[in-house]
Design brief:
The protein is an alpha/beta fold. It has ten helices and eleven strands. NADPH dihydro-nicotinamide-adenine-dinucleotide phosphate (NDP) is lined by residues 142, 165-168, 170-172, 189-193, 196, 209-212, 215, 230-233, 263-264, 267.
Length: 286
């Protein structure tokens, strides 16, 4: 079997065009473009790279972008004050708190200080709760991107068994909620799951969000399974692989996301979509 390649780069391009157009319509109606701010505590090179990529994404669709950089030694009160200030600023529609934070800072405390309506990463407990209840919400970008890929290729989920490997608040748990909302039967696996291979073999859809190169192999998959690989693992200088062993899995799966070029490129587009959504909701309330 040769698996259908779920092309994230292609989808990202389509989404970029749609978001640009909707952003321009929003600006024509309101007189301002959606505006995103990243609050970053200095000292993490990988996070610098990510911030640059968010800036490029915003500029690419005509959204405003601002970076608020706090010193590496900043304390919790200073961080939360910056978050609250952005939360109260009517000219800002989306806020990202760039993770990871230095060890003296609490990520939970920082997220709790956010206005949930500007929480374009979908991390605030209010948004996690709304997602679990099936209410309108800003959904975390990475799992939203995975769902957008499934939709793009019209992959039906109703009645299918979806196995999600990973239970983080950023990827695994919200993805499980999104799959459940589409009527999949969902199993969530994690580091304590017994007989992981046996559980994965039950999946009509297998989603891996672990951070371990090649953890899911073709031998573990049910023939014809659809595979979403969220893993980003740098195995050598400049060489990134997913959590799924491409070589073996692509021979067994019916459809699979490559790494790179699968779920990754769609993630930033979901961030832009959330920023536009937040701006629209805030404009309706103004
Ligand atoms: P976390 O480290 O927060 O979570 C990893 C999850 O994997 C945990 O639930 C952990 O279980 C589980 N796990 C660890 N080892 C095993 C194992 N041997 N068997 C089964 N489960 C295991 O990671 P994230 O969710 O933040 O990220 C996951 C991956 O996705 C990473 O590679 C990250 O780089 C990537 N990522 C990709 C994005 C994209 O745009 N495509 C965006 C965000 C992340 P437990 O809870 O028991 O510890």
């Amino acid at each position: 079997m040769t698996a259908l390649l779920l092309d994230g780069r292609g989808l990202a391009k389509e989404l970029k065009a749609q978001i640009s157009q909707k952003g321009a319509e929003f600006k024509a109606r309101t007189g301002y473009a959606p505006q995103l701010v990243v609050i970053q505590v200095a000292g993490n090179a990988a996070s610098d790279w990510y911030v640059r990529s968010i800036r490029r994404s915003c500029e690419g669709v005509g959204f405003g972008f601002a970076l608020q950089r706090l010193p590496e030694t900043c304390d919790q009160a200073t961080l939360e004050a910056a978050i609250q200030q952005a939360s109260n600023d009517p000219s800002i529609h989306g806020i990202i708190i760039q993770m990871p934070l230095p060890s003296q800072l609490s990520a939970d405390g920082a997220v709790a200080a956010l206005n949930p309506q500007k929480d374009v990463d979908g991390l605030h407990p209010t948004n996690a709760g709304r997602l679990a209840q099936g209410l309108a919400v800003l959904v975390p970008n990475t799992p939203a991107g995975g769902m957008a890929l499934l939709d793009r290729y019209q992959i039906n989920l109703a009645g299918k068994h979806a196995v999600v490997v990973g239970r983080s608040n950023v990827v695994g748990k919200p993805l499980a909620q999104l799959l459940l909302a589409r009527h999949a039967t969902v199993t969530i696996c994690h580091s304590r799951t017994a007989n992981l291979a046996e559980v994965i073999r039950q999946g009509d859809l297998v989603a891996a969000a672990v951070g371990k190169a090649g953890l899911v192999t073709g031998e573990m998959l049910k023939p014809g399974a659809v595979v979403l690989d969220f893993g980003i693992n740098e195995v050598a200088e400049g060489q990134v692989v997913g959590d799924v062993d491409w070589e073996s899995a692509s021979k067994v799966a019916s459809a699979i996301t490559p790494v790179p070029g699968g779920t990754g490129p769609v993630t930033n587009m979901m961030l832009l979509q959330n920023t536009l959504q937040a701006a629209q909701w805030l404009a309706e309330q103004a």
